[in-house]
């Protein structure tokens, strides 16, 4: 019976892990397959190879292609923990009481921290749909996210849409008038069913994007530009923060291409700013962007290089706007890795458990002076954007 169960290190760590895993929203939906390749050292970095891409050649002649070996990396640099202490009398509690009084509130905070860390990857995503300042309130908003992922040849499985409360309930009300009761009713109970191949979740931690104080009539300066730097002009002169990291823009006449067929999707290519930009006295600015402008080959991203004078349109929101960026993504768009920590000697008890790919450590000591038991629960983790093209923001 539970009243006879001792509160052992193993029980506490297992109970903590279950609560933590069940409270993860965004962090519970991303790739977590690389834990076994990491060591338990803060700052450890894992290089993750991406698939090579090739083009198809025609005719009998050999046309050898260079191997690029694209990759990304994830660094384990976060050691997050919740620390508390309790008196020896708490050891008389049954497991259920200890869970409610200590473990549940502690793990909710820890899960919240990890969730916010994974959501911090959103500014790396360059695809963006929605109308700035307009709450998603219809199926069409979800469909636009799905369409953009389809245009990027994203897998149909493991798709997730994470919305802030305003967007979540806006969509719930919107679908209530177009879906039959059996589909719409769950939304009013706090769960929207699978729609447009997305599992839909609410997360209060969805971040906002502060758009730069851009102004002017920006255009591309010079034809034939390629790569990750775009020379532009026409901005209002000497703006300190022209564009922020995470701001998204389009260029007239520059469409995205399907990564498999390399044919134009008919949608303007989105580019995300990867370094804060400012304009000089003549209104010029060199923008650092992703994806790079690539017009040929297996890694082609656009159907054409921008023309000189092509119009630049910032789509992240009005100058200085602070807008919510909900996110639709496939599982491999982002990664989360947790690794074991060292187990020190000389403590009252200690335990480390792994559950659903999450490693968690519990350590407790005894303070003889005050007859209390200081306890800490740690998770060592890192997160990164693996494939930005497998995500799409939904502006709110």
Radius of gyration: 25 Å
General form: elongated
Biggest sheet descriptor: 6 strands, mixed
Helix share of residues? 10-25%
Distance between the termini: 50 Å
Structural class: alpha+beta
Strand and helix map with partners:
Layout: H1 9-23, E1 44-49, E2 71-76, E3 78-87, H2 95-119, E4 128-129, H3 139-151, E5 159-163, H4 165-176, H5 181-184, E6 199-202, E7 208-210, E8 216-220, E9 227-235, E10 248-251, E11 255-257, E12 264-268, E13 271-273, E14 285-293, E15 312-314, E16 322-330, E17 334-339, E18 349-355, E19 358-364, E20 372-385, E21 391-395
Parallel strand pairs: 4-21, 5-6
Antiparallel strand pairs: 1-2, 3-20, 5-16, 7-16, 8-9, 9-14, 10-13, 10-15, 11-12, 13-14, 16-21, 17-20, 18-19, 19-20
Helix pairs in contact: 1-2
Describe this structure in words.
The protein has 396 residues and is of the alpha+beta class. 17% of the residues lie in helices and 32% in strands.
Fill in the keyword field for this structure:
396 residues, alpha+beta, six-stranded mixed beta sheet, six-stranded antiparallel beta sheet, 21 strands, elongated
Brief account:
The protein is of the alpha+beta class.
């Amino acid at each position: 019976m539970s009243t006879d169960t001792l509160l052992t290190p193993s029980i506490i760590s297992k109970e903590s892990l279950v609560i933590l895993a069940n409270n993860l929203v965004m962090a519970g939906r991303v790739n977590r397959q690389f834990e076994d390749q990491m060591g338990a050292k803060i700052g450890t970095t894992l290089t993750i190879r991406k698939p090579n891409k090739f083009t198809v050649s025609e005719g009998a002649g050999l046309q050898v292609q260079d191997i690029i070996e694209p990759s990304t990396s994830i660094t384990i640099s976060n050691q997050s923990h919740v620390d508390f202490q309790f008196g020896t009398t708490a050891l008389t509690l049954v497991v259920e009481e200890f869970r409610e009084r200590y473990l549940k509130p502690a793990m909710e905070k820890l899960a919240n921290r990890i969730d916010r860390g994974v959501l911090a990857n959103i500014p790396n995503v360059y695809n963006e749909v929605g109308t700035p300042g307009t709450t998603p309130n219809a199926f069409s908003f979800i469909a636009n996210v799905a369409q953009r992922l389809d245009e990027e040849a994203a897998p149909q499985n493991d798709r997730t849409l994470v919305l802030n409360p305003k967007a979540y309930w806006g969509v719930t009300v919107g679908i209530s008038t177009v879906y039959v009761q059996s589909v719409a009713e769950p939304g009013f109970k706090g769960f929207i069913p699978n729609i447009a191949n997305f599992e839909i979740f609410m997360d209060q931690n969805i971040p906002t994007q502060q758009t730069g104080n851009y102004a002017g009539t920006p255009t591309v300066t010079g034809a034939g530009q390629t790569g990750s730097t775009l020379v532009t002009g026409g901005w209002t002169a000497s703006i300190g923060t022209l564009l922020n990291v995470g701001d998204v823009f389009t260029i007239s006449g520059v469409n995205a291409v399907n990564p498999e067929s390399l044919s134009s999707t008919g949608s303007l290519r989105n580019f995300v700013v990867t370094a804060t930009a400012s304009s000089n006295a003549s209104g010029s600015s060199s923008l650092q962007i992703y994806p790079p402008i690539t017009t040929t080959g297996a890694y082609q991203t656009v159907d054409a290089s921008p023309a000189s004078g092509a119009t630049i349109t910032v789509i992240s929101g009005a100058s200085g706007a602070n807008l919510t960026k909900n996110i639709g993504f496939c599982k491999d768009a982002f990664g989360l890795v947790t690794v074991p920590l060292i187990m020190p000697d000389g403590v009252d008890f200690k335990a480390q458990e792994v559950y659903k790919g999450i490693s968690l450590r519990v350590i407790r000591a005894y303070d003889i002076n005050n007859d209390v038991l200081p306890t800490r629960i740690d998770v060592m983790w890192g997160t990164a954007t693996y494939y930005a093209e497998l995500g799409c923001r939904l502006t709110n």
